[in-house]
Amino acid sequence: MKYSCHFIKATQEMCDFDHHVPAPYIRKTFSLGFQPSRAEITVCGLGFYELYINGQNITKGPLAPYISNPDDVCYYDRYDLSGLLKKGKNSVGVLLGNGFRNAFGGFIWDFDKAACRGAPTVALCLEAADGERLFELEADETFRVHPSPILFDDERMGCRYDARREIPGWSEPDFDDSGWDYAQTERRPRGIARLCEAEPITVTEELKPVSITYHEEMAYCYESMRNDALPLKGAVARQAYVYDFGVNGAGVTRLTIQNAAPGQTITVRHAEDLVHGDVSVNSTIFLRKESTDPYVQYGQTDVYICKGGDETFTPIFKYDGFRYAIVEGLTPQQANECALTFLVMNSGLKERAGFSCSDPTLNQLQACARRSDLSNFYYFPTDCPHREKNGWTGDASVSAEHMLLNLQAEKSLKEWLVNIRLAQREDGALPGIVPTGGWGFAWGNGPAWDSVCVNLPYNLYRFTGDKEVILENAGMILRYLYYISRRRDERGLIAVGLGDWLDPFEQEHGGIASPLWVTDSATIYDLAVKAAFLFSQAGLTKESDYARAFAGEMRASFRKFLIDPQTMTVAGDCQTSQAIALETGLFDENELPLARRRLVEIIHRDGDVNACGMIGLRYVYHALVNAGEEDLAYRLITSTSRSCYGYWMAHGATSLWECFPDLEAGTEGSKNHHFMGDISSLFIQEFVGLKPNPRCSDVNTCEISPHFVKNLDYAEAFYLSPLGKISVRWDRTANGAAIRLRVPKGIKGKLVLPEGCCFADERSELPLDDIDGDLTVSAIFKC
Predict the structure, then answer these.
(1) Are 338 and 634 a contacting pair, CB within 8 Å?
(2) Global pTM?
(3) How confident is the model at residue 230 (pLDDT cuts 50, 70, 90)?
(4) In the chain, N or C terminus with fewer CB closer than 10 Å?
């Protein structure tokens, strides 16, 4: 397999808001003197491409090949061309989009200033053979180029297409391209050449609208703190049809128009929410002087100019996060349910685990977590699909366990780790987003975000047993530990980054409740412990010894300066501080009862509602379950109080939100994020009790330790282990619970009942090693 380093482009001009440059067609006709018995092509299209062979689109999926900084990695795709080439005349065609190569729509993160920025470019190598006969073709200056009907494209800002400029047959072998220009040579980007191993993005579902409403006039507005819909200057949709697809997801809308007039212009704006019947842009723009106008004019907006007749248009080189599509330019006859279809898109990840129970709220939350995980997985975990579309490292770090528990995402996450390693600075610092053009080192990172460098490999190893992931990332982890160890203060503590992001009571209390010293220092202790374990598993003794010693130093400093030894209260006296110290092992065994009681006291003091931000939510419910307070954990989750998950469900959420806004007071937030999705892990691993490989010792081990939440009549989960499907269900009975297991042969582990429960023979544990199939046992509540 050959990766061509010869890049070509259509023009030096770069598209931006002030100067629209059409996406280029690039093509070449070539002749084969034999019928090939084997043939393949490798292609690197930066930023995005579509590939055509003899007029047939063979692209692996939308947004190919990947989303990366081409000064770090240039991704190639390989295609088997067997049966697609013929003796005689053939053609290869490429349509290029801007992607990260020219991500001017990401100006908030300085992507428009990135050193890698340039006009779209492509390199390809086609090889065909039959016995000893070999034909090879690389992209060069003999390829022909021409503007396509795509007048404008940006991953965040949409696609503008003029169907009147279509060129029928442009990718066919017999097409006459003599009037087209020749391609120009482009300097090879600095990134390493690499075959993309991540799952391609696919259309997973097609949704029809659940309702269509007509509005004579709609303002694009920002909802103020006074619960007023403040119109944004000049942003008005007139004679608009609002298509409601019922759920907040990610993808594109396919437009199907009947009896279109030549030149008829259709504009489709995508939004998460409506405010008093107007289009809310709260979550899709940044209210800064330099950013509002472009986001209002372009953000998540497609424009289609008709050629006339019956037409279908699917935008490319972009995607949107939305529930609603606001359409201007349709006639009443055209505005039917067939006019717009929501093509739900995400990386093609297979399911690994699932959960359901007797409580509708928990079931809805599990569905929301799955939808947000997938809506935010476009080659790698993103923060949100509508506004940023960035690979925020902290979001992925807190979601690593529940994502890998639920989804077979290991190939894509290992690929993203390549990009994280290459984004790491020489001194060991990591940016807050990957890919990046350099943004994210001065703000947006810190231990809770940087922890992705350990938490991803750790959970990948736990769920796959792949030691290669440790060896691949050992250098990055060690360099980061060296770096962060130098950021300690005179007490040996760390406070260098973002803290408990989106603390729900930050405004009321005048700041984040948990001190940065607590969350940063606890996080680094946890990372050092996990790093020591990973290094030991890979036989890296010296590295393991260093990480273990560093962890010991961090633990000693934390305990000396941040824990009150009399009350076992952690600095900050709040839910996040207490929970993170409990769950990362910063208390000694004999201190746990008092420390856990203190957490419960804090929660009661706070009114039995959640008072944690992003970091605390990763730990607090697990800490409660470990304290024997699974019922309190359940109440906190399902409560309809403003700072609890049940509040979202009571207000019609179909995905996980970014924060806990006070909707009655008029505060708003983004409504599709995955980083608060650890509740899914809690449901599966704690409420049902299905814990795959809990000690990272063997992927064929499992511990089943259910917690019988009083408000649940039953709970069930499954997990696809390497040896087969493990399933667990418990049903409440008059004096206990009936537990049904399905365990494939070869799985080692045990069924462990919680304190206060036993089997009929008074035991509280049952080995799984001899089970091959189904087993039903009864748990008896002693009191």
Answers:
(1) no
(2) 0.96
(3) very low
(4) C
